[in-house]
Every structure is written in structure tokens, then in C-alpha cells.
């Protein structure tokens, strides 16, 4: 296993005053955007070749991600401080900044970006009034527009890399000129399948070439994954990722270096779960009917098609129920985004299970009493595992 650092790795920096991650609009939007972005310039030279290289060496390289307080950019020697700090971790040439529009003052950040070579930036939600304070020549709005900017500056970037390391020779960039495996990666507008879509994109680069926003209607509902097809499609994505890995070995493109090296990337299984302790604590409180209804709706589970089975809500309006469900979905999306960052280390497929709680707690309650070596206990354990 190798965790390499390289001048070709792209460094991403979040600039925000937010202290929370999971309950932050900015951080959620930033993590969503990160799924569209390449992690290394070598992927632009050839995404399939870079994947092959990663498989052969067991390379563990994810998004190189930092979060910095905006106060840093109010200091006089901010460029030197940032370079010294950044270079402690990696000597990346390309620096990409994702900026929180809620920051009080953008003047220091704009000045900093003008002085930092090979830097690109975006502002979440693209507010025009704030953007007017910046030099917009290196401003991007999506993964495709960032790659377009890098392509525009390709000659300057290649020259800088050559000056830093004459032995590192990069070819002119062509992400996947043969469009290999493009037909294997269809983007459906579905929270459950987007993680694996973008993992596959890191391998084959179809989103970066086709611009998935336009081709696959990422921001619209016309391309929604059909009902009753969600689990089937997720498992299909897992099989495609494994098949691409298998292809590297079967064609003797890649080979195992040690007997302990896994053949396939680790499957990441995410199991959202309503913790039962909260329900026990609230039993001691005197909740009115609306509070009880709110709690019940906020603990709604999903079936195997990821449809919410909403609890009874006679004391709540439709708008209140929708607001609660939106909050649940937002938390699940945050889990998806974090899962993607983990998966990217080894191109792992991800399965996020439906959110459950009450049903699994009911089954776990059978084990609350002390274990005994009788046949019923063994039967219950097998039954639980099967479910």
C-alpha cells in the first residue's frame, strides 16, 4: 500500500467561518462539488492509465483536502504562511479554493489569490455581488469548467512542473480519448447511485468529457432512477467497478505485488441507524401531541427501495412533515459525501443501506437477556444475520 504525495496532486482548500460540518449549508455544497473534481493532473493525461497505475501499486490517494479560517487571509504575510503550511503536507502545484459566500470580508482572499500562482477558485452558490470583488479569470463553477481552465493554462503548468522536476514528463492531456467504458456509467438523478457514478467517473472520466450536467440532467428530475430499480442499479454499479479492476488483472495490465494484497477494492457499506437511546430518554419528558408526532416522523424508516415509510402525523401540517423529511435527507446526503471521500482512496464501490432503527432494535431486543448456549439463541443470531 502506498500513500504518495506528488506535485501533480491537486490540493483543495475550503475557506469558511463555519465550525460545524454536518449541519453547514456551505460544507454540504462544497462536499457535493468535490465529487466532480479530479484528484491529480495525471488523470487528465489519461484517466484509465492512472487507474491502472493505482491498482498495480496499491496506491491510496484521495482528495487532498484542507479547511482554513478566513481570518488567515487578513494577515499581511498570508501567502508565505499558507505556502509554509501547505508544503508541510504536499508540494502540489495546483491549489483550488472553495469559498464560503457568508464570509464577512472577501478583500483579503481576493488579494491572496492574485498573488498565488496556479490557483483557482469558486464561490458556493455563485453570488455575482461577491464575485465582483475578485479577479474572475481563474474562477470555475463545476468540475468541467475547472478542467477547462487547467487546459487553458496547460503550457504554463507543464513548464512549472518541468522546472520543479525535470524527470517528470507529462504528455499533452487527453482524459480518455477512446471514450473507453463510457456506456458503463450512466448518471441517474438519484442520491443512492451518484456516489458510485462519480467513483466510476474518476476511473473513466466521462463526466469531465461529456459534462454530465448537460448530458445527464444532473440538476433536473427528468433522469430520475425508476422506482423498484434502485437496489438493482446500485449492485450493478458495484459489479462494474469490480469488473474494471478484474480487467486490469485478466489482461495482465496489473498484478498483485504481495500475497496479502486484496484483489478488489474494499466495499464500503454505510448503514444509517436511528439510535434507540434517544427514544428512551424522551419517554421521561412530557411531550405534547405535536412534539410526539415530530419525533415519530423524524424517525421514519425506509423500505428496500429507499422509500420513506412516514409515521403517523395527524398533528402536523404537510409543510412541517416535508421540512422534517428534508432534514433527514440532508443528513443522509452528508453521509454520502463523506462516504465518497473514503471510497476515492481505492476506487471502492459504496452501498448505502436504507435508514432503519425501530425494526432492527426490535430484533436486537431478543439478545438483551444474558446469552445461553441453547439452540434458540443460535437460531436468533442466524435469523438476525440473515435479515
Describe the protein in words.
By secondary structure, the protein is of the alpha/beta class. The protein contains 17 helices and eight strands. It has helices spanning about 25-35, 40-45, 45-55, 80-85, 105-115, 130, 145-150, 155-165, 190-205, 205-210, 210-215, 230-250, 275-280, 290-300, 320-345, 360-365, 375-385; strands spanning about 10-15, 65-70, 95-100, 120-125, 270, 300, 310, 350. Helix 9 runs parallel beside helix 12 and helix 9 runs parallel beside helix 15 (about 320-345). The chain is globular. The model has no long low-confidence stretch (mean pLDDT about 85).
Secondary structure topology:
Elements: E1 11-16, H1 25-34, H2 42-45, H3 47-57, E2 64-69, H4 78-87, E3 95-99, H5 107-115, E4 119-123, H6 128-131, H7 143-152, H8 154-164, H9 191-204, H10 206-210, H11 212-215, H12 230-250, E5 268-270, H13 277-282, H14 289-298, E6 301-302, E7 308-309, H15 318-343, E8 350-352, H16 358-364, H17 375-386
Parallel strand pairs: 1-2, 1-3, 3-4, 5-8
Antiparallel strand pairs: 6-7
Amino acid at each position: 500500500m502506498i500513500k504518495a504525495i506528488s506535485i501533480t496532486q491537486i490540493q483543495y482548500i475550503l475557506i469558511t467561518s463555519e465550525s460545524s460540518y454536518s449541519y453547514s449549508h456551505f460544507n454540504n455544497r462544497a462536499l457535493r462539488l468535490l465529487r466532480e473534481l479530479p484528484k491529480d493532473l495525471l488523470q487528465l493525461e489519461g484517466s484509465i492509465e492512472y487507474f491502472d497505475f493505482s491498482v498495480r501499486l496499491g496506491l491510496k490517494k484521495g482528495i487532498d483536502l484542507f479547511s482554513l479560517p478566513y481570518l488567515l487571509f487578513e494577515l499581511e504575510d498570508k501567502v508565505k504562511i499558507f505556502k509554509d503550511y501547505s508544503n508541510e503536507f504536499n508540494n502540489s502545484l495546483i491549489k483550488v479554493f472553495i469559498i464560503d459566500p457568508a464570509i464577512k470580508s472577501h478583500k483579503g482572499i481576493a488579494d491572496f489569490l492574485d498573488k498565488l500562482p496556479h490557483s483557482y477558485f469558486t464561490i458556493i452558490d455563485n453570488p455575482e455581488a461577491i464575485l465582483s470583488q475578485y479577479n474572475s479569470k481563474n474562477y470555475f463553477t463545476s468540475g468541467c469548467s475547472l478542467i477547462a481552465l487547467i487546459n487553458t493554462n496547460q503550457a504554463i503548468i507543464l513548464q512549472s512542473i518541468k522546472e520543479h522536476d525535470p524527470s517528470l514528463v507529462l504528455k499533452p492531456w487527453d482524459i480518455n480519448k477512446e471514450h473507453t467504458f463510457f456506456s458503463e456509467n450512466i448518471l441517474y438523478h438519484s442520491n443512492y447511485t451518484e456516489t458510485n457514478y462519480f467513483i466510476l467517473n474518476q476511473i473513466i472520466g466521462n463526466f469531465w468529457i461529456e459534462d454530465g450536467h448537460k448530458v445527464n440532467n444532473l440538476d433536473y428530475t427528468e433522469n430520475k432512477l425508476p422506482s423498484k430499480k434502485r437496489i438493482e442499479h446500485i449492485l450493478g454499479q458495484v459489479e462494474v467497478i469490480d469488473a474494471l479492476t478484474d480487467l486490469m488483472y485478466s489482461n495482465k495490465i496489473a498484478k498483485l505485488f504481495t500475497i496479502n494484497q486484496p484483489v478488489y477494492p474494499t466495499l464500503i457499506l454505510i448503514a444509517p441507524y436511528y439510535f434507540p437511546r434517544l427514544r428512551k430518554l424522551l419517554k421521561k419528558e412530557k411531550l405534547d401531541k405535536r412534539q410526539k408526532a415530530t419525533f415519530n416522523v423524524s424517525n421514519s424508516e425506509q423500505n428496500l427501495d429507499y422509500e420513506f415509510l412516514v409515521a403517523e402525523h395527524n398533528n402536523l401540517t404537510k409543510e412541517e412533515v416535508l421540512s422534517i423529511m428534508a432534514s433527514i435527507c440532508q443528513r443522509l446526503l452528508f453521509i454520502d459525501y463523506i462516504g465518497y471521500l473514503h471510497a476515492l482512496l481505492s476506487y471502492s464501490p459504496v452501498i448505502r443501506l436504507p435508514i432503519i432503527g425501530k425494526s432492527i432494535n426490535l430484533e436486537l431486543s431478543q439478545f438483551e437477556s444474558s446469552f445461553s448456549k441453547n439452540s434458540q439463541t443460535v437460531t436468533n443470531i442466524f435469523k438476525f444475520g440473515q435479515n
